[in-house]
Predict the structure.
Amino acid sequence: MHFVIHRDRFVHSVQHVTKAVSSRTTVPILTGIKIVATNEGVTLTGSDSDISIESFIPVEEDDKEFVKIVEEGSIVLQAKFFAEIVKKLPEEQIEIIVQDQFATTLRSGSSVFNLNGLDPEEYPRLPQIEEENIIRLPQDLLRNIIRQTSFAVSTQETRPVLTGVNFTIENSELTCTATDSHRLAMRKAIVETNNENLSFENVVIPGKSLTELSKILEESDSLIDLVVTESQILFKLKNLLFFSRLLDGKYPVTKNMIPTHSKTDFVIKTKPFLQTLERALLLSREGKNNVVNLKTLENGVVEITSITPEVGKVTEKVQSMEANGEDLRISFNGKNVIDALKVIECDEIHIVFTGAMSPFVIRPTDNDHSLHLFSPVRTY
Amino acid sequence: MHFVIHRDRFVHSVQHVTKAVSSRTTVPILTGIKIVATNEGVTLTGSDSDISIESFIPVEEDDKEFVKIVEEGSIVLQAKFFAEIVKKLPEEQIEIIVQDQFATTLRSGSSVFNLNGLDPEEYPRLPQIEEENIIRLPQDLLRNIIRQTSFAVSTQETRPVLTGVNFTIENSELTCTATDSHRLAMRKAIVETNNENLSFENVVIPGKSLTELSKILEESDSLIDLVVTESQILFKLKNLLFFSRLLDGKYPVTKNMIPTHSKTDFVIKTKPFLQTLERALLLSREGKNNVVNLKTLENGVVEITSITPEVGKVTEKVQSMEANGEDLRISFNGKNVIDALKVIECDEIHIVFTGAMSPFVIRPTDNDHSLHLFSPVRTY
């Protein structure tokens, strides 16, 4: 193998595939990045067997030459060193040559690295994906969906299926749901599909995969394809493939959890309410339970309090814009509500309660494609 | 105690004094910030007994009113909560009222915090400083001196006196020295003194104190006074006092360590040489010894190499601008030299060697008030 490559473009690709590489793998070759040079260009692969990322650098694109292939071939190089080395090389071009025994030379200006490579034949093959079920949506929409749901996945391994985000599709409507059983975040979107009858229910993507993917997604409306199979999902971008395994197990049916009636509800400005809760959390955090209390007063005023006996107490009144229904006193996990308010883009929210001991719902007032559900906390 | 204070000014002062507060103190009251209100203004104090910081907010300054004192008094409040609370308060003004039993109310807009205070009488007194020995220099110069020396202090407690920076003064020349016994950083400066015969040798300021101080110092040429006593140093800024204890023990005499002759020397561009060493360090870091090898070649070319057998090898040639003396092969701790090159502001450095087994010196070419000394590493 022997090629000369444009450094910045190469560094960009190396950084992408490195996101999939874990130093704590049980498969030694997976600590490396696989590099394959063909006459079309250079392909890089990183994987921790849960996530695999493949990035392609074409020989030429938009009339710009990125790679000069001298000899085709392949090699695996230690990701940890390789990613740092290429970033620090001095010149605009990098020359990479593989000799006998996988001995690899990197040359840039007067800087010469001789690295011990690994046998590329030992590197596992990427999953073979049947392109039968395809969803297509803009990158920035997918990024938003991830941001507005994945924070709510469970971090505990007691119910592994809850550490992922559930993707379902019916009538071209994608519904993404995350819950840790105390709170739930749900986001819907209309998407393109390759088949208008496409429908699935139990696709659960690990939260960690989505977090890594969203670091790669750009704030652009260029399209991304999601190819769904039984055990894998493939995200297809231009020159980049992102594979993730799916989680096993049956995701709980969440549709029926969402209350449809209301006993008390109010509309309130998102940001001031968020800041009030953040101040209340300063004290409730100490008790480690994050309990914040809400009480409705007269004329649509809402009182937020929290207390840690050793430290003190905070009380704050907020004026709601519209309030209906019964008087209410309720306690909840303030941190969970704050997490949700942070991802809501609308200036106003509508909160609907169904009693002090029942779940309550927060929705932005400007659309009905997202929803947040919370269990109250019992206080004594 | 009862006063109303301008929030941003108050937050600024709270952040300063919080730098001295440690959560791991054996004296419980030191987890708090002491607040004293008099008719002149509000004084805040934080301390971990090694460092104490006092910040004063005058009632009025430059025709601007910062505080309205309703009733004089004092209180101690938990630093951890207090600092976060004041930062998050909603309005421009904060009202603070102490009632019975040190119960304290903070009010800002509709937000009301009731905090349990502590008895201010239990808070230790700050050290009494005799203002006999005073040095005066610009803030930004002191900041530079700290940046160019304190990185070289020892991090090991085996010789505690080496964890500090040695300040000596003679004929109005301040000399600051830090060494961990493998490398040494030295910086001189002409300063004002209150007494032209002022001279001291064994003032050793803990590196940690200087690091905290330099976060408070501003990029300004306004003057700062250093008041030196037997066991304490006081840094006096407008509205701020910073006290640090001095380290016990005799600081080693370093003057004689600095070689005065030369066997090999060259002048080289600082930044390219730094980048070459950073690339070499990528591989030597793995072996944890950070060993980098330097070899002089013909025509003033310098070759830098490093090797980690399991990973690989890096070789790079750099052209020096001027080279004299014998051929040389030497190995050294690359990280130590990098640390020094990062704080040198001059574009060119002069390196003087006295043989492969003897210490070598790096100096900027544009001044003779700073110097870096390194021991070589023996390689086999």
Summary: Chain B has six helices and 29 strands. The domain at 260-374 of chain B is CATH 3.70.10.10 (Proliferating Cell Nuclear Antigen).
